[in-house]
Specification:
This protein has about 900 residues and is α/β, with parallel strands linked by helices. It has four domains: about 210 residues, Aldolase class I (TIM Barrel); about 200 residues, Rossmann fold (3-Layer(aba) Sandwich); about 220 residues, TIM Barrel; about 150 residues, no CATH class. The protein contains 22 helices and 52 strands. The strands form twelve sheets. An eight-stranded parallel beta sheet has the order 1-2-3-7-8-9-12-13. A hairpin with a 2-residue loop joins strand 42 and strand 43. The longest helix has 22 residues.
């Protein structure tokens, strides 16, 4: 008995370390589907993908997020239908489950093929290889001699991989029989179907029989005792996320690194983390315009983006509904006309199968199919006509423009047929016939014409109710930490950028200087804010409109660009007014571009050519152009954006954001970006002075009202940065210059973090490429490829983590200051005690708090200002000198007269 107890204790001692190791294991995802974005994959510390389905840029993005990327490589089977000539005759049989060729591992030709494949994959930036089908030889090697021969060949192949110059990290899929023959340990060993398996022939899921589980458990325990990580892939459908989570927790508790997903590994599954589903699927109809002009994008993207979700707008006429993976989406909305439903029957069929699985919001119109309406619990009972008035729901409409019901049109009479479907806004006509205009239902809800947005006589639009409240009530998305591009180091970002238009114009000042000279004297030199300045080559350069004045203008441009606070940008060669090549523009108020003799628009020249011109002729040594600032309509699509993307040039401008007091309508607040799989269009956070001066027809000092815009968009929700944006011709008049200086003076007084526009663009373009997940033990995990700030909604409480540098309270939540690409934290109802960074007016490079001894580094474009909460006093241990003062009982302010990269060590006491 004593010997038996002793044996059990020894066994436990062997197992316990592996269990502990697994509980601290790095998460992993196996994903073999098409990759449009890596925003879900970056939640995991390791990613295994089909190498042909991921781009180099996507690999780079994952690396920025701290995620290792492994390429799938089949060692025992060739996946193609036809074997290459050199491999013909080297496959003993076909694997009927996957229709692949099982290969003879001893064949030199196959070994050479695998070595070439591995070398090629590693040259593309992969961190390692996931080696699959290691035991496929057992399908034909039925006697011991053949098995030993195949195993010896397999060990040789694996050793060759290990010895490649690129030193790939290797993860095996099984290979139990050869692990002991190797002179090295793989990164990990994977086994499939410990408890749950998938049958590809019947497309069904089953529990694994106990004897198979017992056998595989023994093999995996042998692996763990060798000090090798054991990863288990079990198969459960993504539609049952709770079951996936329970299965992952069970595996983790038993000492394995878990991954649970669908049988084809086409969905994002669960490992030690559970990705938060943050995509929202929207639909528009292209017969009424393109994606960027649709209500889906213009009206709905911003509110969803603000909540931390990623809006996607799909054309109902191009969507393959049977290929939509619902597990990727948190909710669905449709802003369509009735005709769109009638003309796309596939949409109706898809909706019928989707209702009840995801929250759905119908906007403007409902489907016309009677069976589908019945399923929704809504019926059309007739029509209303004449004068129509609101009878219920005025609390939704208070403070908004009243809806207009045309008496010349008939309006559908909608009524609920299901007690669970309630009405929030109702109306009636002169005959007393009632209709519901806003429904709330278990499946989501609907807001119907003329709501929620109405066109006005001045060609503008207005919301008729609060879009944030609408989304909250009808498709109540969970509150999540929201990726945020408005804030840096706890403070709202301030940027300044100038479009080059009007550089040659003479200003109404003594001596008739160029407008650029006026700005140089009154703005660029006296205001130390980081400022981004562009020129149009066709205005300034010798190839342009004014070759005789070019030398004088270039001299001014060089003087501007030489200033230490000025960043270089191009505003193109000829200032194209149109960038969307899909549009047929009939009325062209300004033509296609500046009338440069003999020139036809060449978009490569507009972007690459103009950038090269500035770099070679105007840029001081050590400075290069960072951005292209789009001109005219500023509406490039993916093909044009790709020109800048491939040249590693950032881009900004476009969007529709303009609000002032008395005209603070959210229809004129654009999302931060338009996202495409190969490129991102970053919108100007706020539009330029043209709108504040009514295209310079009045109020030449009107840009001073931009302060109103910044205040409206800063509270009660921080929707945009402080973005000073204007043209060179703002230096033309004393009044326009005064309006501009008023804005600068206001901005200088704000508690803000000044950034160059390129630095803002680098963050904004990654807004949607931010991972939000929960760990199996309930912590939040944020993974970012560029965003430095996360807004934690007040409803989620206070953050608690040593991994974040700190946070600052904003008007709508706590703005977390990120200190690394991947961060985990918990939340609590009360503020945790301790010392934290509250804010810094620069970019945090390092913050390590070890019991009050803080190693810090900040890059600041202005004299540094740090605020630390929770410390009674701080002393400088080393590094740059800081001056200390008290803000209040809880906050210390540390300042320096210097800007730049500052660093040091502090000793702070509670």
């Amino acid at each position: 008995m004593k010997h038996k107890v002793y044996s059990i204790l020894i066994a436990l001692l062997l197992i316990l370390p592996s269990i502990s190791q697994a509980k601290n294991a790095e998460s992993i995802v196996f994903y073999y589907n098409d990759i449009d974005s890596v925003r879900e994959l970056m939640n995991f510390e390791r990613v295994v993908v089909t190498p042909s389905l991921i781009t180099n840029k996507q690999i780079e993005t994952l690396h920025k997020a701290g995620t290792q990327v492994f390429a799938y490589l089949s060692v025992g089977e060739f996946d193609g239908e036809i074997l290459p000539r050199q491999l013909q005759g080297k496959s003993p049989l076909i694997n009927v489950n996957w229709q692949s060729h099982v290969m003879d591992l001893s064949a030199p030709e196959w070994q050479a093929y695998l070595n070439n494949e591995a070398t090629s994959l590693m040259s593309k930036g992969f961190d390692g290889l996931f080696l699959d089908t290691l035991d496929s030889y057992t399908l034909f090697a039925k006697n011991e001699t053949t098995k030993r021969q195949q195993q010896k060949s397999l060990a040789h192949i694996l050793t060759e991989f290990h010895q490649l110059k690129s030193k790939p990290k290797l993860i095996f899929n099984r290979g139990f029989e050869v692990v002991h023959q190797l002179g090295f340990k793989p990164e990990a060993l994977v086994a499939e179907s410990l408890y749950h398996r998938y049958d590809p022939l019947s497309n069904s899921y089953h529990d694994v029989i106990a004897t198979d589980t017992e056998w595989l458990t023994g093999k995996l325990n042998d692996v763990k005792q060798k000090g090798i990580e054991a990863i288990v892939i079990d198969y459960l459908p993504g539609s049952n996320r709770d079951a996936q989570q329970r299965a992952a927790q069970r595996l983790l508790d038993e000492g394995y690194t878990p991954y649970i997903s669908d049988g084809m590994l086409y969905e994002i599954g669960v490992s030690t983390v559970i990705p938060v589903t943050k995509r929202v699927l929207g639909f528009y109809d292209s017969q009424f315009g393109g994606m960027t002009t649709s209500q889906c994008h213009r009206m709905m993207s911003m509110p969803f983006e603000y909540k931390g979700y990623v809006p996607e707008c799909h054309d109902v006429r191009q969507t393959q509904f049977d290929r939509i993976d619902l597990t990727r989406y948190a909710a669905i909305f449709l802003w369509l006309e009735s005709s769109s439903y009638q003309q796309t029957p596939a949409l109706t069929q898809w909706l019928d199968s989707t209702i009840g699985h995801k929250q759905i919001l119908f906007i403007n119109a409902l489907p016309t199919d009677q069976a589908l309406l019945s399923k929704l619990g809504i019926a059309q009972r007739g029509t209303l006509s004449g004068k129509i008035s609101i009878t219920k729901g005025n609390e939704w409409l208070k403070g908004y423009y009243p809806a207009s019901f045309s008496e010349l049109e008939t309006h559908s009479q909608w009524q609920s047929t299901d007690i669970a479907v309630s009405s929030l806004i109702e109306a009636k006509d002169v005959d007393g016939k009632q209709t519901t205009l806003m429904f709330n239902a278990p499946w989501g809800g609907a807001i119907l014409s003329p709501y929620p947005v109405m066109s006005l006589a001045n060609s503008s639009e207005t919301w008729l109710l609060d879009p944030f409240r609408l989304i909250k009530r009808l498709i109540d998305l969970p509150d999540i930490p929201a990726a945020d591009a408005t804030t840096e180091s706890g403070l709202r970002i301030v940027t300044s950028h100038v479009d080059g238009d009007g550089f040659p114009s003479k200003a109404w000042f003594p001596g008739k200087p160029y407008t650029a000279e006026v700005l140089l004297k009154h703005v660029f030199k006296p205001y130390p804010l980081p400022q981004t300045v562009s020129v149009i080559e066709g205005e300034v350069g010798k190839r342009g409109l004014y070759p005789k004045e070019s030398a004088a203008m270039e001299a001014v441009a060089r003087e501007i660009f030489a200033l230490p606070n000025i960043e270089l940008a191009s505003h193109t060669f000829s200032h194209p007014f149109f960038w969307d090549l899909s549009k047929n523009i009939k009325e062209k108020q300004y033509g296609d571009h500046l009338p440069i003799p003999g020139y036809t628009v060449d978009y490569h020249n507009e972007i690459i050519g103009s950038v090269d011109y500035i770099n070679k002729n105007l840029a001081p040594k050590g400075k290069d152009v960072k951005l292209i600032l789009w001109s005219g309509k500023a509406d490039p699509k993916e093909d044009i954006l790709a020109i800048a993307e491939q040249a590693n040039i950032l881009n900004v401008n476009g969007g529709n954001t303009y609000v002032v007091r008395g005209d603070n309508n959210f229809t004129q607040v654009s999302p931060t970006i338009t996202w495409y799989p190969t490129a991102v269009h970053v919108y100007a956070p706020v539009l330029n002075e043209n709108l504040y001066t009514n295209l310079w027809t009045e109020h030449h000092d009107g840009y001073s009202r931009a302060v109103e815009t910044f205040e409206i968009l800063g509270s009660p929700r921080r929707l945009k940065t402080i973005s000073i944006y204007y043209h060179m011709y703002s230096g033309a008049y004393p009044a326009s210059l005064k309006g501009l200086l008023d804005v600068y003076d206001w901005a200088m007084k704000q508690d803000a973090t000044p950034l160059y526009l390129s630095e803002y663009a680098e963050r904004a373009r990654t807004l949607y490429e931010t991972g939000i997940a929960k760990t199996l033990d309930g912590r939040w995990q944020v993974t970012t490829s560029g965003i430095r700030s996360i807004r934690l909604p007040n409803q989620l409480g206070y953050p608690d983590s040593t991994q974040i540098a700190g946070w600052n309270a904003g008007p709508d939540g706590k703005y977390l200051i990120l200190n690394q690409p991947r961060t985990t934290f918990t939340t609590r109802d009360t503020q945790p005690a301790g010392i934290r960074l509250k804010s810094a007016n620069g970019q945090l490079l390092n913050w390590r708090n070890n019991n009050g001894k803080i190693a810090w580094s900040v890059k600041s474009h202005m004299p540094l200002k740090l605020e630390i909460s929770g410390a009674s006093t701080c002393s400088v241990v080393s590094g740059d000198a800081l001056y200390q003062s008290k803000v209040d009982r809880q906050t210390l302010r540390l300042t320096s007269k210097k800007a730049g990269v500052l660093s040091g060590a502090l000793r702070c006491q509670l």
